[in-house]
Fold:
Amino acid sequence: MNAAKKKKAKKTSKKDLVYGLGATGLSVARYLMRNNIDAIYHDSNEDAPGLEELRSLAPDAEVILGDSTKNLLKNVKRIIVSPGIADDDALLAQARKKKIKIVSDVELFLHEISAPLAVVTGSNGKSTVATLLSLMCDAADVPALAGANLGRPALDLLEEDAPDTYILELSSFQLQRLPELPADVAGMLNISPDHLDWHASEEEYRAAKYRIFREAKAAVFNREDPDALEHIPDDIPQLSFGLDEPGDGQFGIREDDGVEFLARGEQLLLSIDDVALVGRHNRANALAALAMGQLMGLELPPMLQVLNEFPGLPHRMQFVDTVGGANYVNDSKATNVAAAIASIESIDGFVVLIAGGEGKGGDFDQLAKTVYMRLRCAVVIGEDGPLIGDALDGLAPVHSAGDMRDAVTRAADLAEPGDTVLLAPACASFDQYQNFRVRGEAFCEAVGALRS
Structure:
């Protein structure tokens, strides 16, 4: 082939398009570079996160930034899309019309692995359970790698030697895009309306979550979910968990001589007082981890050791300080109504609630009706803070604040000794903060400033 023909062939050859930078997009870039695959990179944000790192990883790659998508798909054979980009995105709609394949990083990951796979999802608690499972594997001397929606993107796990098992925390976004999910153990913790700004309807959101069971070889489900069993294949091992008394071989709570225990059937496993995690909802998370761990082949002693020692993840019912007789707790990860309700209901005594942000279509009336009797008052912030205030109007006192420092200062003035000032936003953070972690850190810093 002469030079002119080579140049033409190179110009017309089709490439992958990586849509969305940030942590997932960068993990895809690393994966493609390891496999010597050229790609085009696109983000609608002119100041895309991770751009500098991308240019370091792939200095010769074509990078297209901004909203304009004209002719963007001309030489694209496949789109690798980040999970935060909704299915109704205009570029994805164009791709479907052109019959261009759309894949996710998790789908690429699944094609690469052969080790057993445990996957966990739920509207709330999935990061805690995935972390517990990872720690339980460590305690049992079972090499494991955990990631996806938790911590490291899935494709980055492939940079290490293959473990004995993989543990993936998967969001509804990630689940909806997977054509197959051959999980050895699949766990569904709970389900409540969330991400209605991404999904077309609550029904679509629920279908995405239940999709975790479709090709599973074993399943763990919450007994409080009346619909779960409809989605689990009849011919696979199943374990349930719940905060009621468990049946034979199942996981739940039993009382003995006035003391509550985590239990498996009739077997008392660990006193609630000896569980390091705080909050009633974390008892359910602990039980779910035990059930999944059992199906993964882990022994009870190392699993119980972890539950005795692990205090929880940052920004998830994280005790921050006691100031003026009031406790300050950071649950910035409570990004939906159900999570905020669980947080508030797990607190003994009155709560001064700090809530608000980007509401994602959440039912704030449900929040108000469920928890108002537990509230000393609420301090609302952010874009949809006024909607939470409207829902609580006439049920509990409501105060508005401009930012987190202002909210914490107002909460400190309103709290009485023995109260808990709780950041449980019931909203996403993106109207004011990069993510829930940054929001939680702002809360912690503001609490620290109360002592200065």
Remarks:
- Confidence is low (pLDDT under 50) at residues 3-11.
- The two ends are 74 Å apart (CA to CA).
- DSSP finds 15 helices and 20 strands in the chain.
